[in-house]
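User: Before I run my own analysis I want an independent prediction to cross-check against. Here's the chain; please return only the structure tokens and, at the end, one sentence I can use as a sanity check.
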Amino acid sequence: MSIIGIELPHVGESVTEAVIGKWLKQPGDIVEKFDPLVEIVTDKVSMEFPAPHSGTLKSIVAEEGETVAMGATIAEMEVDAAVAATTTSHPDKTTAPSQAPPAGRIGTLIQGANVGPTGGTFRDTALEDRPRPPVDAAPAAPRMPGQGVPRRGYSPVVSRLAAANGVDLETLTGTGRDGRVTRKDVEAAIAAGPSAAQPLTEQPIGEDRLVQPSPIRRMIADHMVRSVSEIPHAWSTVEVDVTGLVACRSAQRQLFRERHGVDLTFLAFTAYSVARALRENPLVNSTWEDGTIRLKGRVNLGLAVAAPDGLVVPVIHDADREGISGLARRIAPLVERARSGSLALPDVQGGTFTLNNTGTLGSVWGGAIINHPQAAIVTTEAIVKRPVVLSGPAGDVIAIRSMMNVCMSFDHRIIDGAESASFMQDFKRYLESWSVDSELD
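Assistant: Structure tokens:
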């Protein structure tokens, strides 16, 4: 038998660290390959990381609540010598090959987060019907910059139980591992009566209320700070006359649904247009990496979707290869999974550019935060009818048109005004190219 290190897996190019949520196995436990080993929380997802090998868990290196870099050793396992011989990891090293669970996954989504321009969460409801180890010990909140000790945090089960019964977790003395508050501690507080019952996250301070962010909310905040700190944002806005697009959708919406079984949405048109503009402006579809610019070979379009738990950003891979009908058929189930909280990990990986649509919320102008490490994000705003001056052979006339503002935030290290203008004009050209009798491929 040999001892090898178990690494924290990489779950995306923009994810550099994660918080250890809850260990599902303890030292001395016999573990089968692909058994859930530990819950990890990142600013993209929360997931159960499966054991990459069969063996015995010897020690836990990264404690619950600890912030750990991707690729760092989080535990040690005792495995057969034959298994150890195929790895490069040893007790004194921090490298171990990643091994995937069945179906090519690196883990299974649990209640967690996929962070877009303004943050958000999604969960895998399939887990609710699957037996899981009891959740008693509470994962601590992530460590914030300048802190030497992680903030106190609690497991979802403990938090929900306390919230439902008005128990202030900060007043409880935990009896779990390392003094963490367990479910039994909360149940004891409930049995003790109203004296322990206070709001979970809101603490009154005079006329104000102090709200403690969840661990995921803290990671979202860190992600946003990182984006605006590392990326020099610049902005550009153009007006788009979408009168023809609106007429096209109205005229063909019913027939489109009969033919393709999905609704013809404005999102399909904007996704089609932005994907083609990205193909013609590859610099916008890129990232800044250690002083170099990586031009992405694929157009993987992230779509900001408003879900019950917040904003999520599922990805349409190779969006530039689809027509309107193909995009509509792919967008509809993806948006439904986002809103129902049933996105899979591949649904949120690999995005190269993000399309944001705050127009559905009534916004007419905005400057979104770039989804790090992408080079830009574009926002389509509300379609508003208003008088517009049109020039023609007979001179200028005033007409009522359907107008939409399109706003772009871009990384000024990669993109200058000229490149931004080129992309925006191409995007505008595609959006304005539709008419009542346009063919929808």
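Sanity check: The chain has two domains: 1-225, 231-431.
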